Amino acid sequence: MKTEILKALRESKDYISGQQLCEQFGVSRTAVWKAIRKLEEEGYVIEAVRNKGYRLIDYPEKISQEELGSLMNTQWAGKSVKFYDEVDSTNTTAKQLAEEGAIHGTLVVADKQNSGRGRRGRTWESPSGTGIWMSVILKPDIIPANASMLTLVMALSVLKACREVTGLEGEIKWPNDLVIHKKKVCGILTEMSAQIDYINHIVVGVGINVNTDYFPEVISKMATSLKLEGNQSYNRARLIVKVMECFETYYDKFMETEDMSLLQDEYDSHLINLNQEVKVTQQEGEYFGVSEGITSRGELIIRQQDGTKVLVYAGEVSVRGLYGYV
Predict the structure, then answer these.
(1) What is the pLDDT of residues 122-179, one digit of tens each?
(2) ω into residue 175 within 30 of 0, thus cis?
(3) Annotated binding site for biotin, which residues?
(4) Which CATH number fits domain 65-269: 2.40.10.120, 3.40.109.10, 3.30.930.10, 2.40.40.20?
(5) CA 260, CA 63: separation in Å to the nearest integer?
(6) Which residues fall in the annotated binding site?
(7) pTM for this structure?
(8) CATH architecture, domain defined by 2-58
């Protein structure tokens, strides 16, 4: 009820009467009044004028079930939201929900993670009140071999959303990092449950440093936040919603071909690896070369010193001068 009333207040350009809310949602005036009071207790400033009704004046910078639900205008991405004050990891929670039958597009958001995870088992610091820690559940009808490309699709989505909300220009470090001024601001972790030829579900996790004021010295040279780069705080809920809007658009393009062919040029245009000397680290060892962009399959094209080209589909790719690699 709170979510529906908050959404109605947001969408109304003028006062909306209590009677109108009663009729719209099929509830009593008492139920409306109680919902309004609860919203006010949570920090929403709602003006009530006799014979006019209610009007939303201001709202808190917070993430909540009601806040996200009232802002979301997508067709399927994030239409179902599960919000938690604290979880071990949104990816872990999302996988559990997917196994329990959560629908395609379900968005899992937490204000804090106790055990946030990055690629290759790395930890991701996820304190409360500062960042965006979220995972989206996907159940696409594609072959398992195509699932990893959704990391690239999400990277494009977060990049565009951050630019539209903050005005900051970022770049993508293949395959799963977003950087601003050569420092990491976002990481993406994609995990899959599948049979040999069938996907049960995919979980794409996103961690964005939004309003972080400082980082420990050990990572301060490689990590940054939107606040540090833009010199202001940003509304996390609105950024989450914008990411979902962008992801829905890019995902639908991806599904048209089930590869990156419709997104390849746009991805390359934001690729910080492009035409850069890189070091590729894999289980077999490491080698150097120049990145020449991605293939339609999302692989990174590396031209080695002898002129031969290698397609990288997994491993670490370090850019000279980035993250301490020199």
Answers:
(1) 555 567 889 999 999 999 999 999 999 999 999 999 999 999 999 999 999 998 899 9
(2) yes
(3) 89-91, 113, 117-119, 184
(4) 3.30.930.10
(5) 32
(6) 89-91, 113, 117-119, 184
(7) 0.89
(8) Orthogonal Bundle (1.10)
